[in-house]
Design brief:
Radius of gyration: 23 Å
Helix content: 10-25%
Organism: Pedobacter endophyticus
Strand content: 35-45%
Keywords: Signal
Distance between the termini: 61 Å
Protein name: GLPGLI family protein
Shape: globular
Largest sheet: 13 strands, mixed
Structural class: alpha+beta
Number of helices: 3
Length: 250
């Protein structure tokens, strides 16, 4: 009988250890902080990106703002795109690197939502449309000596530049895939409607992170279209409104 209890105790300990091991499962990932800017003026927020070989998790950090400035920024930019598969507060995004399939996850207190983006932006290697010329010009970015690369679009003849560094090539994260195999991009530019947007890496390293941060949590309700999400929100709002009326009658 004593041996039986010992065996049961051992099995229980093994079971608990297995659960704890699973809960603490870690994975190597690129942990990057990116600073967007409008030409020479940095934006009042940063983009925190954690990426493994399959999924990229992106989240906006506006902690530098305070009080009314933060509230105004969040209200004005709610739901707007930031050019890197990230939707602004209160969401974070999980994006499959190979397919571009992206989920926007939001915690609204009473309910948690995971909304599938309708238009997947699959990473495309467009390197055949660009010519790259490594120059002898360098500048310090994020503590690294970065080399200037002249980029020429062969179709439009538009000439641009990016800055790269070989020391960070070991990271799986890439700012863009359109130039094909190229050294790690630390600074790049994006041109939209006459406006120049810059993206600068201010921190990049490899860390062990919980594997679960790349998965949609079980307590999030999934919606595969914005249409279904809006219908659900309408029903939710109606139910909550009716509930308040009932409380008032009492």
């Amino acid at each position: 009988m004593k041996n039986k209890y010992i065996l049961i105790s051992v099995l229980v300990c093994l079971f608990v250890s297995a659960i704890n091991l699973r809960a603490q499962q870690m994975i190597k990932a690129s942990v990057v902080i990116q600073q967007p800017g409008d030409e020479n003026h940095p934006m009042p927020y940063q983009i925190n990106i954690i990426s493994n070989a399959e999924v990229e998790r992106g989240m906006v950090d506006d902690s530098a703002l305070e009080g009314n400035a933060k509230a105004k920024f969040r209200e004005e930019s709610r739901g707007s795109k930031l050019g890197v598969n990230i939707i602004i507060f209160p969401s974070y995004n999980l994006t499959e690197i190979k397919t571009g399939k992206s989920w926007s996850l939001s915690d609204h207190g009473k309910y948690k939502i995971a909304l599938l983006e309708t238009k997947a932006q699959k990473p495309v290697d467009s390197s055949t449309y660009f010519s790259l010329h490594y120059t002898n010009q360098y500048k310090k970015i994020a503590g690294y000596t970065c080399q200037k690369v002249i980029v020429t679009n062969k179709i439009s003849n538009i000439i641009d530049s990016i800055y790269v560094v070989k020391e960070l090539n070991y990271l799986v994260y890439r700012m863009t895939y359109k130039y094909g195999k190229i050294d790690f991009i630390v600074q790049a530019y994006e041109h939209n409607n006459g406006r120049t947007q810059t993206y600068t890496i201010i921190s990049a390293k490899e860390e062990l992170v919980p594997v679960d941060i790349f998965k949609i949590p079980r307590d999030y309700k999934k919606f595969y279209s914005i249409k279904r999400y809006k219908k659900w929100m309408q029903r939710k709002g109606t139910k909550e409104f009716n509930k308040k009326l009932e409380m008032q009658k009492k």
